[in-house]
Every structure is written in C-alpha cells, then in structure tokens.
Design brief:
single chain; 125 residues; mainly alpha; 6 helices; globular
C-alpha cells in the first residue's frame, strides 16, 4: 500500500498492514482514516478493505474523533463506482447510525447520506 512519507509514519503503515483487521485499534484507524480520505495513504480499494473495521469502531463509539460529513461524503463520492449491494449496505448502515446518534451527529450523517448514489445509478467515468 502506498503512502505519502511526509504524511504517514512508516511504522504506522507497517502496523496497519501487520495487524489483523478485527484487531486494528481506534488510534491507528483514526490516523489511517484521515490520510485515506485525503488520498495520502492507500487508494479507495484499500479504504474499502478497512471500511468494515472503521464502521465497527464508529458504531461502538471507539472512534469518536471523526467528522461524519467529511468521512461519509468522501466515501459517498467514491461509492458511485461500487456495486449496488455495497451502496445499499452503506445506506442501511448510515440509516442505522442516524437512528442511534444524537441530534447533531444525526443531521451531519443524514447530510452525508445524500452523497451516496441510490442503487441502480452508476457513473463509470
């Protein structure tokens, strides 16, 4: 996985790849997430690989230092290239997260949800 050597500590990059996905802690995932959405660590296929753990840490409250709008809008933008079942899964997850969140986060997440294309729409540029 490629990364910007000025943005990412090589030890963190090695740790991310060496740690089994279910064992990646919130601190390492937080650092990865910031860089992944800025496209300075890995590509969108890499992010899709780590997305289940990222979403798990968000839903359990372990990853609290994220901006729902920034994170999910970035992912939503890329999801236009995803198969319908993957887009549907993200929309279901975000709907559940809205239901479980406080009012301020719910509004941000709802706004981010609007960036996810509906299943059946594609943009294959």
């Amino acid at each position: 996985m490629t990364y910007c050597s000025r943005c990412v500590d090589p030890e963190q990059a090695a740790a991310l790849l060496a740690t089994p996905l279910p064992e990646i802690d919130a601190q390492l995932m937080s650092h990865y997430r910031w860089n992944a959405t800025a496209e300075t660590w890995g590509d969108w296929d890499d992010l899709k690989h780590f997305l289940p753990r990222l979403l798990e840490l968000i839903s359990t409250g372990e990853l609290a230092d994220y901006s729902p709008d920034m994170l999910f809008s970035s992912i939503g933008y890329q999801s236009r290239y995803w198969p319908d079942d993957e887009r549907t899964a993200m929309r279901v997850y975000l709907d559940a997260l809205i239901s479980a969140s406080g009012p301020s986060f719910a509004d941000e997440i709802a706004e981010a949800l609007s960036s996810f294309p509906a299943p059946g729409t594609t943009d294959k540029h």
